[in-house]
Amino acid sequence: MSSIALLVSFSPPSSSSSPQFRTRTTHSPSQFPFHFLSRRKQAGKVWADVKSEKHVPEPSSKYQDLTLHKKAARALDIGEDVEDEETSTSISSSWWEVFPKRWVIVILCFSAFLLCNMDRVNMSIAILPMSAEYNWNPTTVGLVQSSFFWGYLLTQIAGGIWADTVGGKQVLGFGVIWWSVATILTPVAAKLGLPFLLVARAFMGVGEGVAMPAMNNILSKWVPVAERSRSLALVYSGMYLGSVTGLAFSPFLIHQYGWPSVFYSFGSLGTVWFCIWLNKAHSSPLDDPEMLPEEKKLIATNGMSKEPVKEIPWRLILSKPPVWALIVCHFCHNWGTFILLTWMPTYYNQVLKFNLTESGLFCVLPWLTMAISANFGGWIADTLVTRGVSVTTVRKIMQTVGFLGPAFFLTQLSHIHSPVMAVLCMTCSQGTDAFSQSGLYSNHQDIAPRYSGILLGLSNTAGVLAGVLGTAATGYILQHGSWDDVFKVSVGLYLVGTVVWNLFSTGEKIID
């Protein structure tokens, strides 16, 4: 016989609303054996204790009596203490409060980069009706397309310095609202004249130029080492999906509402994001008053950069071989990546004989593949780190795949004559390229978490230069050679990057 039944057998018959019943139900079942044994030694006191509580007033209504009965019955049935209804309601309605705050920050950064590439690629679609309306020649079209990089190149290092000294929240927020306003003003600037349009596009580049260093600074403070690859892969996949979204929706908006609608609608989304960012984000977990202590402790004990930067040790930073490995390998990586992403529609049209619609459709495939493989690579990298593989080994493995994978698939293009196989090779090339998010792009936070924004600014400046020079050099090579020559240059740089990375990179902190 259970202890509860035994206790009830010693009790006098009473209704469920009696004071005696209420007294018994104040104990959980796990307490009943000890309660009963202690009372059994004082048999005469059991009834005295029960009778002594007869002064407790009866419930004022049948509803209160029934509620009390249900509470007592539930406590007896499930073995829990009677809880206040308001407490349980509060717990059930605030589940989002226990959602990891660091992943809220990661998701907000992901959405910022989604908007970043949406606003960047919309010009590549809108430039067609714009050039027809304003009678631009190809040289002018190229000037408009390149004006974005003027501002983008200028703010890489400056954005990193600003983020590391002021805080990533302010810098990323500034970047998004700046480039969103510049996007909204693009149609107005185009109507005012070409110089105003060039300035507007350069201003947009200024805003987007600070985004990557600021994001790197934020995640270096918010994300533990064992989750670094996954978080960065998710954020960078926002760029890939942003390109897909921009390429997919821009033609529809232009067809339905005219080319200015692309800039108005995409830019407005940035202002919405900015309002959410101001209310939810903080530069560091230490600044977040709503963060749970358990999560704050987890981040603090797993590689969080705590102290703000007051002085930048430029000589120390530039004296480290792993820093130069980052810069050189970022250049090698972006040369191949920017060439493929910039010239791919031309390659599809001239070599594979796709029409413009088909070229645009097939251009989406590499972006989708990169979004998927980047997150897959991030999961692999974090799993290896969690299982005890050194961060250095993981970074070298992932970046070697990010270099040798594209190199291999590009070498196959000269032997392929089927358009389907050529598209497959290009897609696989970009898919393996995305493993770089868990190698090269994660390494800034590994070697110098306090200066990760500055490091990304340095290496991404080299990456942007590679994009500008590589895009121009490809045109020159095609004028005097062939596509095979273009791919040979990219493959050569991928191989150089592989050697440099495996010789000089590290996953250990080299700068405090």
Written description of the protein model:
Helix content is 77%, strand content 0%. The chain is globular and about 60 Å long. The protein is mainly α and 512 residues long. The N and C termini lie far apart (66 Å). The protein is built from 22 helices and no strands.
Structure summarized in a few sentences:
This protein is 77% helix and 0% strand. By secondary structure, it is mostly helical. Helix 7 (101-134) runs antiparallel to helix 11 (211-222).
Low confidence ranges? 1-93
Mind telling me the C-alpha Rg? 31 Å
Number of helices: 22
Global geometry: globular
Helix share, percent: over 70%
Distance between the termini: 66 Å
User: Strand-and-helix sequence, N→C?
Assistant: HHHHHHHHHHHHHHHHHHHHHH
Beta-strand content estimate? under 5%
Structural class call reads mainly alpha
Number of strands: 0
Major sheet details: none
Roughly what is the average pLDDT, rounded to an integer? 79
Keywords: Chloroplast, Membrane, Plastid, Transit peptide, Transmembrane, Transmembrane helix
GO molecular function: phosphate transmembrane transporter activity
Domain Major facilitator superfamily (MFS) profile: 105-509
Main location: membrane
Key attributes of the depicted protein:
512 residues, transmembrane, MFS_Na/Anion_cotransporter, transit peptide, Major facilitator superfamily (MFS) profile domain-containing protein
Write the layout of secondary structure elements.
Elements: H1 3-9, H2 19-24, H3 32-40, H4 43-51, H5 62-78, H6 85-93, H7 101-134, H8 138-166, H9 168-192, H10 194-209, H11 211-222, H12 228-257, H13 260-280, H14 293-300, H15 314-318, H16 321-350, H17 356-386, H18 391-412, H19 419-433, H20 440-447, H21 452-480, H22 483-504
Helix pairs in contact: 7-9, 7-11, 7-12, 7-13, 8-9, 8-10, 8-11, 8-21, 9-10, 9-11, 9-13, 11-21, 12-17, 16-17, 16-19, 16-20, 16-21, 16-22, 17-18, 17-19, 18-19, 18-20, 18-22, 20-21
